[in-house]
Amino acid sequence: MICVLSGGTGGAKFVDGLRQIIPAEDITIVVNTGDDLMWWGLYVSPDIDSITYVLSGMLSRERGWGVKGDTFLCLQAMGQLGEPTWFHAGDRDLAVHILRSRLLAEGKTLSEATAVISQKLGVKARILPMSDSRVETRVDTPIGELSFEEYFVQRWYQDPVNSVRFAGVSDAEPADGVLDAITKADAVLIAPSNPVSSIGPILAVPGIRDALCRARGKIAAVSPIVGSAPVAGPAGILMQAQGLPCSIAGVAKAYADFLDILVCDSRDARAAAELRQASLRVECTQTIMRSSEDKVALARTVLALATDTKLSARASGILSGAPADGSQ
Ligand code: GDP
Asked: Which domains does the chain have, with CATH numbers?
């Protein structure tokens, strides 16, 4: 079994590649829930939705979120009623939020509701929320504390950031199956997700970091930072607010206590060589996922590295850059 830790955008692209090279039944994805929000009275879990949609073939690849071909009639009608419309929930997307909210109101946990929805949408991989307890990512800015979606979607991450915290996390427990999935996996792959707002909340749930340190399989992370900037979004701003440089060194630092292999972009070959001197295994490859082929190629490379089929990855010409151990 391969365990993936993921957010919703870079994470969904990476999972899209992975699902095309190994059976979905062999994949468990532990997903960030720090971005979850109540919207029009409904419980929305943006990252779980994106992962569910990508695995069911429903994700809009153009937008990178929501359901492909979705309409926004309800959004329009809510606007006419004077309700907020900054969070763009599509009509088919709303059906999932309604069902999840009903299942939660009936007493199901978020894991159970996620499993029901996955099964109804034909998802064969296992999607696990990081926790069934409510953990809320809060972004401290000069205008006050914002929820992650307020900061990111409503305000277009334009506010300077003082710090980020995960409200409720000290009392949270990992959802059922999360610790086992991490410790027993053949490999744990950390998607190219935001290290602070997507992977950060997962790592902050008590017990998860420790499970990563005890994991039987190798742990490989793909950097969402290329050069000195994220491929997209506010990862750089948030990393700096948390005292991490916006570079592959910052990503390495965020995962330092458990990381075996950092996979970074070929453009970071020089920074990779410096990191290797700090005795981390760092591999360079093409990490920008534009096409389906890019996604598959990256997933194949990372999987080969983490499951120790390094020679075949190198022999097939997937990897570029000097190997970590100086051998060819
Ligand atoms: P969120 O929940 O929407 O924030 O999604 P994620 O945390 O999963 O993904 C956001 C991160 O993905 C950003 O930091 C981007 O830099 C990164 N990202 C997006 N597309 C790519 C890509 O094609 N390659 C790499 N390496 N990173 C990407």
From this structure: 1-60+102-328 (3.40.50.10680)
